[in-house]
## 1
Amino acid sequence: MNLTKRAINETDLKRLEIVSGPTYTASNNRFTYVSTKVNEDSEYEAHVYSKDISTNQTKQWTYGKHSNTNFRSNPNNTQAVFQSTRSGTTQLWLVDLDGGEPKQITFFQKGAFSPKWSPDGTSIFFSAPLNIDDDIHTQKEHTCEEKQQIKKDKQNKPLVVNRLKYKSDAKGFHDDSNIQIIEYHLPTKKFIQWTTKPTDHSLHDISADGKKLVFSSNWNEEADSELISDLFLLNLHTHEFTLLTDGNSNYYNSRFSSDSSQIITLGHDFDYAGATLTKLYLFELSSKKRKEITNQWDIQLGDAMVTDSRLGESENGPIWSKDGKSIYFLGSDQGSTSLYQTDLDGNLEKIYGEDNHVFGFTYHPDEESFILGISSPIDPGNFYELNSNRELSLLTNVNKSLLEEIHVEKPEEISFTSSDGLAIQGWLLRPYSFEDGKKYPFILEVHGGPHAMYGNSFFHELQLLAAKGYVVVYTNPRGSHGYGQQFVNGVRENYGQGDFQDLMEAVDYCLDKYSFIDKDRLGVTGGSYGGFMTNWIVGHTNRFKAAVTQRSISNWLSFYGVSDIGYFFTKWEHGLNLLDDPEKLWDISPLKYAANVKTPLLILHGELDFRCPIEQGEQLYITLKHLKKEVEFIRFPGANHELSRSGDPSMRIKRLEQIGRWFDQYL
């Protein structure tokens, strides 16, 4: 192979520019977006930019070592609101679009976020965590000194826990606050608190006539032990709340029709627990009747793609067409994420879809055009215009200089039929400086979830391992999204069986097809569910010569009680909870098979991982070490379950270095 570019390395992670959150402004031919980079202090910075499509001019709106997101211009395009950490806490700021310095408009103790303009531009609705007795009119943001004192006081006090949902991987230990919906009225500069119940409320949309809000919440007495999320309407004139749904489902990303008579929403009824495909529903507000639009489809709505190169705002959910006859949304299918359109009867059309990853979009109703955020296996992501003729044109080229310098390997798609008749899709990366006739070591990557999807998106870790001289294979075994409801459900109550078979047959397929793979130098790695599967693999076969397990699960009995999701996830995925059948949970725990392990194993875990807590890695390490196995344990201070995706950049680089070191040593 004649290479003119250098191999990608760990520190290139710091040079990636990740774009997200495309949003058309009220001004024609202009959109805003967020760019996230790592600064010289090895910290993330997120800044807002706007792009004029007609002139190709780009303007930067925010500066400094802060995170600035959710930039939303008002209906007459004179002002914009955005959220920023520049004061030390995430707050809302207002800026005049004709110039001038931003002005802080919220000073809430625990911050404010997710702003939305009222249709007449006189109010901004937003979310804020509040305690039950907080007065929104006297809120005062804590100083740095006060925050330090509060942190110190917490360290000197016992934590009193009296509810089931008392911690989460994202937030750590919960306090007594709940997310409430607030309005800021610009002419009077007054705040109005619209929700007060001691539970979280998620604002979805404001009706075009400005009279109603739609939000989701759980107002049931048993909310602490439930996962449902009902839809509510709030009449802003009468202050009346109306429950739209029946307390058996989960709803999010709802949108009013232009005449405010209907709502579309994503959600599902937990038919297959956590493996249930997301559906699109239509609600007639006058009758509260729900119609499922997706009942003839077999695709996952939304973005199910797994990658380590996405930061910032996520996708924005379904959007109505200008004439109110169609809905636009993202869907995940066959390893790609695409833009779809449906009418209200469920007639589905893919309006843009290639072998890539559409990670966000915005719709211009007057122009019938879209801005798409698109990543591919060889590009971390850029924005494109999809015009009314469905022609695609590039609008940004944010990683141009980096991609001109580094070699990025284009994957080869692989597919085979499993021994029990399932079609399995995957991808193979050849090593940097590949030469015909030479044998190369091999690494199998297993994704987390398990209900997620590898696919046609940029993945720094996979490229890095290929750059180090490894053949890298990543597949979607049963349990993955992208191949229909029965496929994604195929792993439930079947962990370590069909999924293990799919992965081993993927290895066999590659060994049979590609003569350049050295069958005596096989490695395996994965995180979360992929970590569980790595642990399971080395306890059930000795064909791998090295393994790295990351943020893994080793013991389902203890996972039930220590994970922030264990109390429901165990039932969802295995059909039982701890006291139902402890012996069965032990039978599917990799720890039970530790004595069988002969593969050198590196265990990586974040100290503050509440999803798969560090005791899972610790149990496995101590057991293997006590058995005098070849094992090493690395604990990452301050890191939660998201270490590999959005964790501290320096820690992410150290993690990649350790993975490379282990495979270099044993393969």
Note: Residues 178 and 265 are 23 Å apart (CA to CA).
## 2
Amino acid sequence: MAEPALISAPVRRPASVAPTAPDGAPTAAGWRVELRRAAEVVALVGLAVTQPLLDVLGRSPDFFLFHRATSGDVLTLVAMVAVLPGAAVVLLGAATRLAGVRVRAVAHTVVVGLLLAGLAVQVGRQVTPLRGVPLVVVAVLVGAGGAVAHRRWSLPGRVLRVAALGPLVFVGLFLFASPASAVVLPRAHEGAAGVAGPGSHPPVVMIVLDELPLVSLLGPDGRIDATRYPNFAALAGGSTWYRNATGVSGWTPYALPAVLTGRYPSTPAAPHYSQYPDNLFTALGGLYDIRAQESITRLCPPSRCEQPVAPEQGLGVLVRESGALLGRIAAPVDSRVDPQESFREQTAAEVGLDAAEPVPADPKFRWDSLNDNQPARFTNFLAGLRQSDRPTLHFLHLLMPHPPWAYLPSGARYEAPDDLPNDGAGWVDLARARHLAQLRYTDRLLGETLRTLHATGLYDRSLVVLTADHGVSFHRDWQGRGMGAITHAPGEVAWVPMFVKEPGQRAGRVDDRNWEHVDLLPTIADEVHVRVPWRLDGRSAKQPPRDRAEKYFYDRPGERVVLSGGVPARPAPSTAHPLVGTTVGAKPSGGTATVAHLGAFDHVDPAAGELPALVWGTVPRQVPDGTLLAVAVNGRIGAVVPVVPKDQGGRRFAAFLPDDHLFRAGANRLDLYRVGPGGALRQLTLS
């Protein structure tokens, strides 16, 4: 009998295995599989990286304005965000093909699972209370389940391949629909010039501070605390203090344009001259020389003024800060996803500016040895305060006392970790103390401004304006400037200092009218005899006060919040522990603690302008929450702080030592004590 014929059936390959030619190279079908895999990776990277990062940056045009990014810088950054992460993962996956088609298939499944897990972390942080390890475990399970589903069924892959168009969509939304689009594609508009009227046109000196609530300046009697803030008190003593003044938003990109346009925030536009073409700079620009130092806005058009001092800028800093921002976005723990974390005023030394002259004789400030520590923007502003043949507007927006908090009252700087919370038990008190210390340094800067104005003869002739764009709440559990803080602590978020010294004014006075920041532009216009040629929401202080007592405030443009109440009272100050300021002798030891950067105490050089004034670390887990720790430098206790509830950083403590006199040149001794009943101290061994 003839042998039966062998019938060969076609081999079924899994969809995830790319066919290869006999020499190992992909066939046409294999290339199609690789393209499908690449599309799936691009889709997932777009959802996990491109979309969240461009979304945050698109809503933060001030990030690009602060770093003075050009359109080319922004476009390059966007291209990198949209292309490089996906391309890197695709190439890494393609390289696994060298180990064989089955290894390549498994590697692709693993990549899909990891990207799904990363996406699950971000979604889980938004929609669940899970954080840390529990969130990571859930995300890994989601990623594993998604990878199995992707390998077993074809539908998930088809959906991902359609979603591969996502990065293009996200880029388009950023470029054409986000508030940041004005920075990339500005529209040319010169803005309306004011009309000069009869009367004098005095010099204008305008300082806008950032994140300064009025209550931080007040003493127990409701007046400016002249002991802590002598220069603010001096300004109040020779100007009109609009004590019931409020900003119109807790966010600078909305608050400052309202100040300079006289209009309430109506749309979420970038604080850029193309979006606000009619503002103080254009109104005075035809008559006045403009010397403007802006920080996170660009409201003065290039035709009116240049920005002589800029922070660190260029593509490199954009990439670095965007990478740090992505790390916070993708973290499985709560973190401040805010581009403003990168907004730090560079010092005069960092920018390479000489200190402004003349050096004042102020030994308490030690300006002669610490002048390089002053912000470069302030140095340049101070140097420009000179007499001129033409009317001049001297404008400064300074990110002080805005975080990052880095200055002691003396002007010396200190280092602090990036992950210290600002809210919660123990932390909010630390945040307020650091804010107040930086405010006392800001008072020193104001003193230098007033002395320079007097020395140059500008003070008496000028209209001098000082205010802040918004405040900030240090209310427990409602720290910050968001809607929760506005609801629970409006007196700290909305009410700000507002001083106007008219030319020739000598005596101070207090005006408690219902002042809102949209009133500032019409007030300046009346003082300098210029008519503003556009409709204003504010009213000049030369006019009768508005009838309504309620305040208009905007957490979001176009969404008015009505606030009631008058001038806020100062919050009850925290009472210093009786141990603070006392000297400590030998104490029994018992327990341990870990202190970060302990070596900084071995070589202290106060004349260099930096001190280890923030001490932070951890204690063993058996130490109860709320346990008091006394921190001593060279035998003198500088702070008593609690151990805070455990978080992702462990069982932590942080102590702020704002008194320079605790430190000496050379080696300093740091001691940490556990405070027991009756104030008994037990020394901890430090590592």
Note: The chain has three domains: 29-184, 195-308+367-547, 582-686.
## 3
Amino acid sequence: MAERTTVDITDAALTQAARSLLDQLVADRVASALTAQDPTLWGERAEPEASIRLSWTTLHKSSRPLIGEIEALRTDLRSEGIDRVVLAGMGGSSLAPEVITGTEGVALTVLDTTDAGQVADALEGDLERTVLVVSSKSGTTVETDSHRRIFAKAFADAGIDPARRMVVVTDPGSPLADLAESEGYRKVFQADPHVGGRYSALTAFGLVPAGLAGADVARLLDQAAGAAETLSADSPDNPALRLAAALAAAHENGAEKVVLADTGSGIAGFGDWAEQLIAESTGKEGTGLLPVVVESPTAPGFADAGTDATTVAVGPSVEGAAIATSGPLGAQFLLWEYAVAVAGRLLGINPFDQPDVEAAKKAARALLDNPQALTGTEEPSAVIGAVEVYGPVGDSAATGTLSQVLREFVDGVAENGYLAVQAYLDRLDDASATLLRGELARRTGRQTTFGWGPRFLHSTGQYHKGGHRNGSFLQITGAVEADVPVPGRPYTLSTLQLAQALGDGQVLADTGRPVLRLHLTDRAAGLADVVRAVQELTR
């Protein structure tokens, strides 16, 4: 018997608050209209975008032909001894494949970074056994193009024909599709152009890299198909309508954050995928839902959540959870896609655009075009041990105490606001940076998010600029020991990484958001200093 997909609202007050919204969604036949891909559901302004972004509702059917194509290519690759899959992709092109393969326990090396160390580590893998999946909807993603160039040179230097080791996933007619054809890349998978990146888990973007790595993508589509009828029903028992109504009702009552904790779902890293879907779909026009992914249901932010947050258990319900969602991975993808799209209707926004994402990209490009702006024109406000401090530090610079610098900064976080930690580092070698989320949340009493840069720019970056204006931003950058040039481009990975950090920080500051950057002149020592300084904070 197939595992059921459910949404359990355990908070009685939230159930009551959501009831009228749920009844209205049923009366308006929103679920069936969404399944029928009705672009009028979000109003006249959203209709042009919605009309070309709704094919995800039937992907459990339309993606079936991919299964055979993926398996045939995987078989061919294996016959040549190629069994190591590296994925170059950002945002919607990498988050779903990572969840799928992590859940199934199959190996996939994901490059969603511009950190030179992390990319160098991927290059040190066995290139004789490696295929690179280059995944970009637009076909112009700068990080992904950089990875492609770097790997093409590495393959050629190793005496391997790069074209035979390149598999592309992109939209029809993109610059990447044209390049792949002209270069004779091994295979091009053209994704459905009527699906946005964050809704693309069940398109070629999610299925191709996961399937080539060995995940059972047919089962994933079966799981989604098993939930599709329930999710399209105009019924108060529809779990997607229940979830959307609960999230919107909570938002109306001041809970604009959604705290996600895994409670034994059996799904690896689901919160990271849901984070992009929620933040990029709803965080605009000064409103939205901020996803806060925490380590466990006992972590700060969940166990001690205040009235500004709704706690959601991904898996069985636990003490402290206002909502619990359950079901197999394919069904959970579809459940949350339906729920977030419907929540957009209730919030009065277009869930399919991302109007504030481009600003940080433009700022980074401007810095790349002006290398002088990246090489020392800005002096640190203070240098404390292995940490350079950039940004307003008040009187704390005179004390020489990093803890006081942080104390002054976090004291400025708005009441019921949030603190975003943005680490432009190596998420493998510098993994200890993730400790900062829980430590800061515990000591500030504020909801605290953590994102690896530039990965989060394709995820929560939209909310940071377009959502509720109550965030404060702690950037962490680090010195690079061994840089990696980007072939055919006038910059290295470290230059690109720093441009992305400074560009986003500039956009945030220009919109009145508080930004503090800590630059680690020695990564290991600097991270230890920062963690120690945070632990010295008192609430």
Note: Residues 329-347 form the longest helix (19 residues).
